[in-house]
Amino acid sequence: MQPNRIKQLWKENKTALNAWITIPSSWTAEVMAHAGLDAMTIDAQHGLASDYHTILPMLQAINTTNTVPFVRIPWNDPAYIMRMLDGGVAGLICPMLNNRAESEAFVQASKYPPHGFRSIGPTRASVHFGDEYFGTANTEVITMAMIETADAMKNLDDIAQTANMDGLYVGPWDLSLALRHAKIADFESVELLGVFDKILNACAKHGIVAGVQCPSPEVAIKMSEMGFKFVTAMNDTTLLKTSAQKSVEKFRNNIIQNSSQNGANPYA
């Protein structure tokens, strides 16, 4: 297995740019991958691609580029974790982890003995990454625990000490809701920025990476400057929706403007 490009970026103290993938299509995954992203995370929790037969061709499409495929698994389920890794996923993000015991269970399901209890059977992974996969997977596969609950914040320092875990990934929407902030995912809020500081400090203290879900590239830039080294700057569904709306709006406004100048009703 070749060195994980995301880990290489982190070693160079660089930020990895990630996109959130919710559309269950190998074609749109391939298009996104060719945009030059560092990583793409297929959202198997809230996205529309969750079953193995849908995700597999998406992984194959992403692998036509140097973009590193991640999956946000739907739950802390060892069977699902191992299935994704056997399919060739190079990074996993696990949602709704509340304490160290849960984060340890997640990481151990992702690692072969002696660091975990992952069983041997890397069907596609051994084809894609090569026969040496078994000997390098424990080192190269990335595991990130989501911090998005009040209990996770309460147990933050303990979770950050999880053995063989690579980082914490912040879900600002669920987290700000769980902490009863006045506004959900308000990246200008002193309240939420203070939470980010605590998470960044915990990661720095224990030598792991901090990642965060962002609503836009502009916010992702600010979060990178703040110290996050894995930033999600875009969502495929949002990109498609926003681009379509802007194109329609531009056309409608232009037609109306031209018709009004000619004294005609474009919708008559």
- The count of DSSP E runs of length 2 or more, i.e. the number of strands, is 8
CATH hierarchy: architecture: Alpha-Beta Barrel
Distance between the ends: 63 Å
Strand content: 15-25%
Radius of gyration over C-alpha positions, nearest whole angstrom = 20 Å
- Trace the largest sheet across and list its strands: 1-2-3-4-5-6-7-8
Mean of pLDDT: 96
How many helices in DSSP terms? 13
* Succession of helices and strands: HEHEHEHEHHHEHHEHHEHEH
For this structure, the CATH topology is: TIM Barrel
Unreliable stretches, pLDDT < 50, 5 or more residues?
Answer: none
- Kindly report the name of the CATH homologous superfamily: Phosphoenolpyruvate-binding domains
* Overall geometric form: globular
Total tally of structural domains: 1
CATH class category name: Alpha Beta
Describe the structure.
This protein is α/β, with parallel strands linked by helices and about 270 residues long. The protein has one domain: TIM Barrel (Alpha-Beta Barrel), CATH 3.20.20. It has helices at about 5-10, 25-35, 50-60, 80-85, 100-110, 125-130, 135-140, 150-155, 155-160, 170-180, 190-205, 215-225, 235-260; strands spanning about 15-20, 40-45, 70, 90-95, 140-145, 165-170, 210-215, 230-235. The protein has an eight-stranded parallel beta barrel, surrounded by eight helices. Helix 2 (about 25-35) packs parallel to helix 3 (about 50-60). The longest helix has 27 residues, at about 235-260. The radius of gyration is 20 Å and the shape is globular. The N and C termini lie far apart (about 65 Å). The mean pLDDT is about 95.
